[in-house]
Design brief:
Largest sheet: 6 strands, antiparallel
Low-confidence stretches: 1-22, 24-40, 81-93
Organism: Tychaedon coryphoeus (Karoo scrub-robin)
Strand order of the largest sheet: 15-16-17-18-19-20
GO molecular function: histone H3K4 monomethyltransferase activity; transcription coactivator activity; zinc ion binding
Pfam families: FYRN (PF05964), zf-HC5HC2H_2 (PF13832)
EC number: 2.1.1.364
CATH architecture of one domain: 2-Layer Sandwich
Number of helices: 7
Shape: flat
CATH superfamily of one domain: Zinc/RING finger domain, C3HC4 (zinc finger)
Protein name: [histone H3]-lysine(4) N-methyltransferase
Helix content: 10-25%
Radius of gyration: 58 Å
Length: 400
């Protein structure tokens, strides 16, 4: 018979039956439990707790029948992290030592600590895809913009805005279309009906000067002279920027003078490449942008008169919301009845105006105004043109 006794220092010791008998002799002084009238109990084994001081009887438990246990597994070998406690074993003792394995702590780097724990849903809720780009060997020509536009047009998946209409306005000096560069010919200014000039082309003409209010004077005079002058560089008419050196006949367009590397000065003088000083000059001007308010000074009354007197109406004359169509005419016998101290009433005059509607408070409509003759007197007619309604005609003998 063998018993298991739990000893100190985390080790198990097996004692034989002879040892138990020897220990029982030393326990005569310990009182035994009283006999109970119950049936005889099976023999008892004394379990002792031993330490370095003395042996004490701790519990007295009934001895169970021995069961056949499966063959014991070989002892588990742990790394020598902690040394087992040393117990002095007697010659007739069978000692089994169990060593505890310390729990190793995982050492993570600072980068791994910052990463959030990944969810283990791969294959169930998400998958990882890898993309491989294969570039064929040989010369690869990327498609041009025209091919891309045609391809997108075939697909019909994009909306392309309408192209910006081309500016066909042409400068009377340099004959270039549209507004020029800010640091070059600059924007176009209106000179007359369908006549345009670039700001710097007019400003750097010899006859032109600028007032404090920003008006360019003598532009028409420079234009007349330019119609007879040929540019030294491009050999075209309209050149008005000449060299200020005495007896020098070189004359250029403003854009041609920049291409020929002429020298421009702050006092609005120009020197051709033959007469310009070598190197840089303190008064040299290298930037031609004009952001201030500049306009061409002209006689507006004469300009309006020239517009009205034109027979062919290829252009629309508009002042604010008033659109001028025809001026009409007066015969000699109509002069006395078709005028007043402040105005003339020519027969056939016609103009239209966009003004507030008489039917709706927040809409506008078109009013067609004309002058007719009735019984030798002028008849003023206003026709109201409004969408969704019939034309309303109003007539009277006075314009009021």
């Amino acid at each position: 018979m063998k018993d298991i006794v739990f000893c100190s220092n985390n080790c198990f010791v097996l004692y034989s039956a002879a040892v138990q008998a020897k220990n029982s002799e030393n326990k005569e002084s310990v009182p035994t439990l009283p006999q109970s009238p119950m049936k005889e109990r099976p023999p008892k084994a004394f379990h002792q707790y031993s330490n370095n001081i003395s042996t004490l009887d701790v519990h007295c438990l009934p001895q169970l029948q021995e069961k056949v246990s499966p063959p014991s597994s070989p002892p588990i070998m742990f790394p020598p992290a902690f040394e087992a406690a040393k117990v002095e074993a007697k010659p007739d003792e069978l000692k089994v030592t169990v060593k505890l394995k310390p729990r190793l702590k995982a050492i993570h780097s600072s980068l791994e600590d910052c990463r959030p724990p990944s969810k283990k849903w791969k294959g169930m809720k998400w998958k990882k895809w890898s993309i491989q780009i294969v570039i064929p060997k040989g010369s690869f020509k990327p498609p041009c913009e025209e091919e891309i536009d045609e391809f997108l047009k075939k697909l019909g998946t994009t909306l392309k805005p309408d192209p910006v209409p081309k500016d066909y306005r042409k400068c009377c000096f340099c004959h270039e279309e549209g507004d020029g560069l800010t640091d070059g010919p600059a924007r176009l200014l209106n000179l007359d009906l369908d006549l345009w000039v670039h700001l710097n082309c007019a400003l750097w003409s010899t006859e032109v000067y600028e007032t404090q209010a920003g008006a360019l004077m003598n532009v028409e005079l420079a234009l007349r002279r330019g119609l007879q002058m040929k540019c030294v560089l491009c050999h075209k008419m309209g050149a008005t920027s000449g060299c200020h050196r005495l007896r020098c006949t070189n004359i250029y367009h403003f854009t041609c003078a920049i291409k020929a590397q002429c020298m421009f000065f702050i006092d609005k003088t120009v020197l051709c490449p033959m007469h310009k000083p070598k190197g840089t000059h303190e008064q040299e001007l290298s930037y031609f942008a004009v952001f201030r308010r500049v306009y061409v000074q002209r006689d507006e009354v004469r300009q309006i008169a020239s517009i009205v007197q034109r027979g062919e109406r290829d252009h629309t004359f508009r002042v604010g919301s008033l659109i001028f169509h025809t001026v009409g005419q007066l015969l000699p016998q109509q002069m006395q009845a078709f005028h007043s101290s402040k105005a003339l009433f020519p027969v056939g005059y016609e103009a239209s105006r966009l003004y507030w509607s008489m039917r709706y408070a927040n809409r506008r409509c078109r009013y067609l105004c004309s002058i007719e003759e009735k019984d030798g007197l002028p008849l003023f007619v206003i026709k109201v043109l409004e969408q969704g309604h019939e034309d309303l005609v109003l007539t009277d003998k006075t314009p009021k």
